[in-house]
Amino acid sequence: MAALASQLPLASSGNFLVKPGVGLMVWTLIVFGVTMIILWRLAFPRITEALDRRQKTIEDSIDTAERTREEAQKLLAEYRQRLAEARAQSDEIVQRARHTAEAHEREAKDQARVIATEASARAARDIETATARALDELRREVADLTILATEKVTKKVLDDADQRRLVEEALGELDFSGISSGGAQD
Amino acid sequence: MSTGQAAPAASAGPQRASAGRSKLGTRQKVLIGLAIWVGGTIALIAIAGFHGHRNTAFEPQNEFKLESWIPLGILSINKAVMYLVIAATLTSATMIYIARRMQQRPNRVQTAVEVVYRLMRENIAGGNMDEKMAAKWFPFIGALFLFILFSNLIGYIPLPTNTEHELTIGGLHIPSFSLYAATANLSVPLVLALVVFISYNVEGIRAKGLFGYLKGLVPAGVHGPMAGAIFVLELVSNFMRLLSLSIRLFANILAGHLLILFMAGALAVLLGAAWLGWVTLPLGIAMFTFEVGLVAALQAFIFATLTAIYLGGAVADHH
């Protein structure tokens, strides 16, 4: 390889490689200048505008997303608060209903007790009245039987004074206390 | 050529093997490629011999020689002018086409262009200058970057531009296909560097005044005789920028093209050793890929970035 390399024509006639040419320099200036103007006027503004627009869209999207998130959080908080309020209200309603029901129950029991007491009293009164009436009838029956028995025994008709005396004596001997008070109590 | 075909096949090995088209693994493909490469070399040495006859008529540097195609005196049209015009046309057409088709939801091509555009606007211009300066000089820096990039890239497409070696097909004389880049000619980078040099100096003088600008060349805190020496050094280095900027681009592209040229067969033609062409071909392909994939864009990036740095530095408060 070294032997082959030694045969290479090293820079024998390559001076033109490092020698600037004025013509090409002028052409470069013209061509580059035109390219720059074209890019500057026709390409770069559109690309910049599109990139800036997209960046703005992205920023807007981020802002919108942020706002939406905040709104959602606010709504969530509001719903939670409402839910808590509703729960409290429902508890209150249940409590109130329980109180009302208990009050109604108590009232109903009291009323029933009053009605029962009244009915009992009325029944006692009716019994007493009936007992008194029965006693009166019994007295009349006993008086009549006493007079009739006496007349049959004596074979004479008793006058009013005797009849009154006989009745009072007969009635006086009879004890109705058991019927009047004990019968009413039984 | 089989070695050239083996390399891409080897890189896509696992996928193809899994698809059932090939049962060979990457390692086996590489080994087969190497075997073909070595075997081909041995076969060529056996057929044509190790030592060849030096071709004195072939001068590889002439690939870069500019022959006047249309004589217009000093402004004669030659190969380099044609490459410049092609580069300018492609740059303008591509950018206008993309600019007109900018979509709110970009496709892959637009995304790639947007990445390049943002690189130019935000990194090259915006990263080295203040906002006002970046907005003012972005069209210049962007145009420089794209123009150099396109000039470099089309330099790797073989075009029928070699009028020294013509092909005769059916009585028609057609220039042979060859690689050439306008930026591989010193004149092109030099004039671009000259525009940059004038631009940043004018901008600096406009911002600080002539005296202020020259005074600004000396770093703050340096006084006395040392300031004078540093002023001279800075002034010289300022002019050296003109050379470094242009020669960096020119030399990189020229060296790349020469290497591709030699590796792809020129060395074998020059030394008359057929086996050498076979040996250097894979290196030529590797060099070509490296130049297209990295150097073309990197040199454009460096040129544009240095322009932005020089412009930003010229108007900066402190040196």
Itemize the secondary structure elements and their pairings:
The complex is a heterodimer of chains A (186) and B (319).
Chain A: H1 2-5, H2 22-154, H3 160-173, H4 177-185
Chain B: H1 2-11, H2 13-19, H3 26-48, H4 79-100, H5 108-125, H6 131-154, E1 159-169, E2 172-178, H7 187-208, H8 210-215, H9 225-271, H10 274-315
Antiparallel strand pairs in B: 1-2
Helix pairs in contact in B: 1-3, 3-10, 4-6, 5-6, 5-10, 6-10, 7-9, 7-10, 9-10
Give structural attributes.
heterodimer, A: 186 residues, mainly alpha, 4 helices, disordered N terminus, disordered C terminus, B: 319 residues, 2 domains, 10 helices, 6% strand
How would you summarize this macromolecular structure in one to three sentences?
The complex is a heterodimer of chains A (186) and B (319). Chain A has 186 residues and is an all-alpha fold.
Number of domains of chain B: 2
- How much is the radius of gyration of chain B in Å? 25 Å
Structural class of chain B: mainly alpha
Count of helical regions of chain A: 4
Helix content of chain B: 55-70%
Major sheet summary line of chain A: none
Helix coverage percent of residues of chain A?
Answer: over 70%
Average pLDDT of chain B, rounded to a whole number, is: 86
Gross morphology of chain A is: rod-shaped
**Distance, first to last CA of chain B:** 55 Å
Annotation, overall tally of beta strands of chain A? 0
Descriptive account of the structure:
The complex is a heterodimer of chains A (186) and B (319). Chain A is mainly alpha-helical and 186 residues long. In chain A, 86% of the residues lie in helices and 0% in strands. Chain A has helices at 2-5, 22-154, 160-173, 177-185. In chain A, helix 2 runs antiparallel to helix 4. Chain A is rod-shaped. Chain B is mainly α. Chain B folds into 2 domains: 1-48, no CATH class; 56-315, no CATH class. Chain B has helices at 2-11, 13-19, 26-48, 79-100, 108-125, 131-154, 187-208, 210-215, 225-271, 274-315, and strands at 159-169, 172-178. Chain B has a two-stranded antiparallel ribbon with strand order 1-2. In chain B, a hairpin with a 2-residue loop joins strand 1 and strand 2 (172-178). In chain B, helix 7 (187-208) runs parallel beside helix 10. The radius of gyration of chain B is 25 Å and the shape is globular. The interface between A and B is large, with 41 and 55 residues.
